[in-house]
């Protein structure tokens, strides 16, 4: 059996490949020592491949030989494979890995170039949500956000133009959280949570659109656990991209790109 591990800032993603079968697992990165114990105990005979920010720490604490690879290269290899398996054949595209933080890449068939990063990512999503509402569980945040109303928190372009003709689409966000002082403090937890997700989603999409424009492509691929079962976020990414003439692709299992690529 071969095991690929992408040990990130928040989650350790693991894929076990046995013949044609793939098993996908995740562990909180704060349990890294337990994952190391488990690998030492059960997988010392297997071929283990590591990548991600905590790969070196894991390697130092495993009592058998493993191979490591650079996170950005591993992610690109895994992503290329997932794109092919999903039937996409892109010559040029950009991709954003929305993990704890976000990194942006321009890619062609033959390679990728990391062109930047942003501290706005999944860590922002859970951190700000916790500060505002006391809720820190990712799944609960997303579930509650589905019931929220962004207009109670965010200022849209049409709010500023008071129903008069707008030079850009009125439904665009003029200011994330910019409507808070205009209302009567009626933003519920749900409203605040969808606004947090909106802030992260629009920030990364806006960066993706600029990056894609500079790279002369419309294709933008989003990966990372932040998107996982997070239709609030992926709906905002898709509609904002569409509004601006971009094409957003969200890949199933995209968050496992690094773990898959590590063992290639
Ligand atoms: P990085 O690549 O920046 O080092 P990472 O690889 O750990 O970080 P991902 O696993 O891609 O990052 O994404 C982490 C984000 O995914 C979290 O910040 C959170 O928003 C979201 N998330 C999804 N599921 C969970 C979960 N079960 N527990 C915690 N966070 C989750
Ligand atoms: Mg990562």
Q: Your description of this structure?
A:
It contains 9 helices and 12 strands. 39% of the residues lie in helices and 24% in strands. The strands form 3 sheets. A 5-stranded mixed sheet has the order 3-2-1-4-5. With 264 residues, the chain is of the alpha/beta class. A hairpin with a 2-residue loop joins strand 2 and strand 3 (21-28). The chain is globular. Among the domains are: 2-68, ATPase, nucleotide binding domain (Nucleotidyltransferase, domain 5, 2-Layer Sandwich), CATH 3.30.420; 122-148 and 188-254, Nucleotidyltransferase, domain 5, CATH 3.30.420.40. Helix 4 (122-133) runs antiparallel to helix 7, helix 5 (138-145) packs across helix 7 and helix 7 packs across helix 8. Residues 6, 8, 52, 99, 258 line the site of magnesium ion. This is Type II pantothenate kinase. Keywords: ATP-binding, Coenzyme A biosynthesis, Cytoplasm, Kinase, Nucleotide-binding, Transferase. It comes from Jeotgalicoccus meleagridis.
Using DSSP, what is the number of strands? 12
How would you classify the helix and strand content by structural class? alpha/beta
Strand coverage percent: 15-25%
What ligands does this structure carry? Answer: adenosine-5'-triphosphate, magnesium ion
Main sheet summary: 5 strands, mixed
Mean pLDDT: 97
Instruction: State the CATH architecture of one domain.
Output: 2-Layer Sandwich
Q: Which class of one domain in CATH terms?
A: Alpha Beta
Q: Which of globular, elongated, flat, extended, rod-shaped describes the shape?
A: globular
Would you identify the CATH H-level superfamily of one domain? ATPase, nucleotide binding domain
Could you give the order of the helices and strands? EEEHEHEHEEEHHEHEHEHEH
Level of helix content? 25-40%
Global Rg: 20 Å
The count of helical stretches stands at 9
* Low-confidence residue ranges: none
Distance between the termini: 13 Å
Query: Strand order across the biggest sheet?
Result: 3-2-1-4-5
What fold name goes in the CATH topology slot of one domain?
A: Nucleotidyltransferase, domain 5
């Amino acid at each position: 059996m071969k095991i690929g591990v992408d040990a990130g800032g928040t989650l350790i993603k693991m894929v076990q490949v046995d013949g044609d079968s793939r098993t996908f697992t995740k562990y909180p990165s704060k349990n890294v020592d337990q994952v190391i114990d488990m690998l030492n105990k059960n997988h010392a005979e297997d071929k283990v491949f590591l990548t991600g920010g905590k790969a070196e720490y894991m390697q130092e604490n495993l009592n058998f030989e493993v191979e490591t690879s650079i996170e950005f290269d591993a992610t690109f290899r895994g992503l290329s494979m997932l794109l092919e398996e999903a039937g996409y054949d892109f010559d040029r595209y950009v991709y954003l890995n929305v993990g704890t933080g976000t990194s942006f890449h321009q890619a062609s068939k033959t390679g990728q170039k990391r062109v930047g990063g942003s501290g706005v990512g999944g860590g922002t999503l859970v951190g700000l949500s916790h500060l505002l509402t006391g809720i820190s569980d990712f799944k609960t945040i997303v579930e509650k956000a589905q019931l929220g109303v962004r207009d109670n928190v965010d200022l849209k372009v049409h709010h500023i133009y008071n129903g008069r003709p707008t030079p850009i689409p009125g439904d665009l966000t003029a200011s994330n959280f910019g409507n808070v002082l205009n209302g009567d403090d009626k933003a519920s937890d749900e409203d605040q949570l969808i606004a947090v997700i909106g802030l992260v989603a629009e920030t990364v999409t806006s960066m993706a659109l600029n990056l894609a424009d500079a790279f002369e492509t419309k294709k933008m691929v989003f990966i990372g656990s932040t998107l996982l079962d997070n239709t609030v976020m992926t709906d905002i990414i898709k509609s904002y991209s569409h509004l601006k003439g971009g094409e957003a692709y969200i890949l199933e299992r995209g968050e496992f790109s690094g773990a898959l690529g590590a063992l290639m």
